[in-house]
């Protein structure tokens, strides 16, 4: 992930370079699975290398390290475990009844433990172990620990709904017309990541939090998209903290209107403070007071502008949607010669006014295929996708097999998010790739037909890298592939060199006429660049990069403290991550507001 490194950014490494191997020795059929798991949990009271498999890994999420860390190999795990348990004195490691689950080659179980009062109140923690057979013995392959709750802080995973009157009063107390200018936390961005963060903080008793959103209404970032837009994750997979913001009759793939309606319910049910139509011009760190000063401006209906206002906040959270929704637009020569219409997908709303016209879409990710379908449905004379590189494919059947077993109507979403977060990313990647390969190999004709139509596919999609490194760039097929195969949507696998008066020219000299050219070329992925435009170049150089992974396989910048700048955070990279990781972000902010930040283990 390209970035200018200034010394405050952790170097990223390719996730594919972090080796991991899945166990292959089968779990004996005649063993007592729960007894094995119970024994493994007992080992945690005095963990050493003899308890650990050769490729063992331990991921900690705030329980011991005050951060998110992954330790690999038995010696590194033993060293860190002994040092950290000597500091925190964990107690009462116990197997959670009914949590034992058996796969072909490992036994998985959940456990719980407590950390006694120190500078923090008593803490409830949990974890998972995956235990594998090694010869005649059992060893821990995967260990994970996470902070659940802190005594007296409230429950970060549960919040009671307010009555309409209570919600209205709570929001009025800190709303834009309240005159309030001092906050514990300011969140820039009112999409799923910003709303999740504010909701979690509210559950922890942090009421002085404000979301600053430039859109004119809650859910506006979704409503501003093209009219045919739907989410590419299921309704349950797309839920918000505390759950059930979407209705039983809402469709599997939510439209932008249904998404926005769910977000409005979240705000109303829990009294979340969001200032809409509010632009953040800049933010500056005041070292003397250890606070942020933000200059904001309310732009009301029909562009009515109020005087700029300064507000202060102890913590600043950037929830800008990956790169802040800054579009990437390739620069092709002779743009001024072209007589047709050119736009980026961010500005695309509908193809109805292009009936009978020739459309060209540059790019082959999700937006490109959504827009190509929209153009076809609107009666365009022709629709052509310009494919620059092979495209990773995610057929609907593959998505359902990968995610529906985890996220469905009976899922305890809070628990599932935590369990999925426990698995080290390199292990999750290898396991997911293996599962993808099995599914893809069942449907060769699906991919062969696309290749015959000129669409070059990368069959074995790397779902983990897609989320944590690329932040998209794949093709989730909900119908466009069939139209490519039957020729309704045409494909040119080529490099564009320039515009012509009537269309575009490829590097091999061929030309393609078009009445409209749409760049479906994605967005800037590194939130640091968008954040730097707000905090200024000097502070921006001290910020961490956003996404990609470090040498431990931990996501860069995601809900983690930054070494170069205090009290500033990122959250984003999809609804599941925003929902799940927001709990860890809220706990860290709450700790600081209580006067006792978590000690970060280096």
Automatic annotation (TrEMBL):
One of its GO terms (molecular function) is flavin adenine dinucleotide binding. Keywords: Monooxygenase, Oxidoreductase. The keyword Cell wall biogenesis/degradation does not apply. This is Flavin-containing monooxygenase-like protein.
């Amino acid at each position: 992930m390209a970035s200018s490194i200034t010394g405050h950014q952790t170097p990223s490494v390719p996730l594919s370079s972090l080796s991991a191997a899945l166990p292959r020795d089968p779990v004996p059929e005649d063993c007592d699975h729960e007894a094995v798991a119970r024994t493994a949990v007992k080992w945690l009271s005095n963990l050493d290398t003899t308890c650990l498999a050769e490729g063992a890994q331990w991921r900690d999420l705030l329980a011991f390290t005050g951060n998110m860390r992954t330790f690999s190999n038995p010696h590194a795990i033993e060293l860190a475990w002994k040092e950290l348990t000597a500091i925190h004195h964990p107690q009462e490691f116990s197997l959670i009844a009914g949590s034992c689950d058996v796969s072909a080659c490992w036994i998985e179980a959940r456990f719980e433990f407590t950390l006694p009062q120190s500078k923090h109140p008593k803490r409830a923690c949990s974890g998972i172990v995956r235990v594998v057979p090694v010869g005649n013995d059992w060893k821990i392959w995967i260990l994970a620990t996470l902070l659940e709750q802190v005594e007296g802080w409230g429950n970060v995973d549960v919040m009671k709904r307010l009555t309409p009157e209570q919600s209205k009063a709570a929001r009025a107390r800190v709303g834009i017309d309240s005159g309030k200018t001092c906050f514990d936390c300011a969140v820039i961005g009112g999409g799923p990541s910003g709303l999740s963060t504010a909701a979690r903080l509210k559950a922890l008793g942090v009421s002085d939090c404000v979301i600053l959103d430039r859109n004119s209404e809650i859910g506006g970032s979704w409503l501003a998209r093209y009219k045919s837009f739907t989410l590419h994750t299921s309704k349950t997979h797309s839920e918000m903290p505390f759950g059930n913001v979407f209705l039983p009759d809402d469709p599997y793939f939510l439209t932008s209107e249904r998404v926005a309606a769910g977000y409005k319910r979240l705000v109303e049910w829990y009294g979340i403070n969001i200032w809409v139509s509010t632009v953040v011009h800049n933010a500056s760190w005041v070292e003397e007071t250890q606070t942020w000063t933000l200059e904001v401006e309310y732009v009301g209906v029909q562009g009515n502008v109020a005087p700029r206002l300064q507000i202060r906040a102890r913590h600043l959270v950037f929830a800008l949607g990956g790169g802040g929704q800054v579009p990437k637009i390739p620069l092709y020569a002779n743009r001024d010669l072209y007589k047709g219409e050119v736009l980026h997908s961010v500005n695309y709303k509908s193809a109805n006014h292009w009936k009978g016209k020739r459309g060209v879409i540059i790019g082959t990710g999700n937006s490109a295929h959504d827009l190509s379908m929209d153009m076809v449905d609107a009666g365009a004379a022709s629709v052509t996708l310009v494919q620059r590189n092979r495209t990773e494919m995610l057929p609907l059947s593959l998505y359902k097999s990968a995610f529906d077993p985890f996220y469905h109507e009976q899922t305890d979403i809070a628990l599932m998010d935590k369990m999925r977060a426990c698995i080290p990313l390199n292990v999750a990647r290898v396991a997911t790739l293996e599962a993808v390969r099995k599914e893809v190999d069942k449907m060769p004709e699906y991919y062969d037909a696309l290749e015959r139509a000129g669409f070059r596919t990368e069959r074995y999609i790397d779902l983990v890298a897609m989320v944590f490194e690329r932040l998209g760039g794949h093709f989730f097929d909900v119908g466009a592939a069939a139209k490519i195969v039957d020729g309704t949507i045409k494909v040119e696998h080529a490099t564009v060199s320039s515009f012509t008066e009537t269309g575009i020219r490829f590097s091999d000299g061929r030309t393609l006429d078009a009445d409209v050219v749409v760049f479906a070329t994605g967005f800037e992925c590194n939130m640091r660049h968008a954040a730097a435009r707000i905090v200024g170049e000097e502070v921006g150089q001290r910020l961490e990069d956003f996404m990609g992974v470090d040498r431990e396989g931990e996501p860069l910048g995601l809900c983690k403290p930054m070494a170069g700048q205090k009290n500033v955070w990122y959250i984003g990279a999809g609804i599941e991550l925003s929902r799940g990781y927001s709990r860890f972000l809220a706990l860290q902010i709450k700790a600081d507001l209580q006067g006792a930040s978590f000690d970060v283990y280096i």
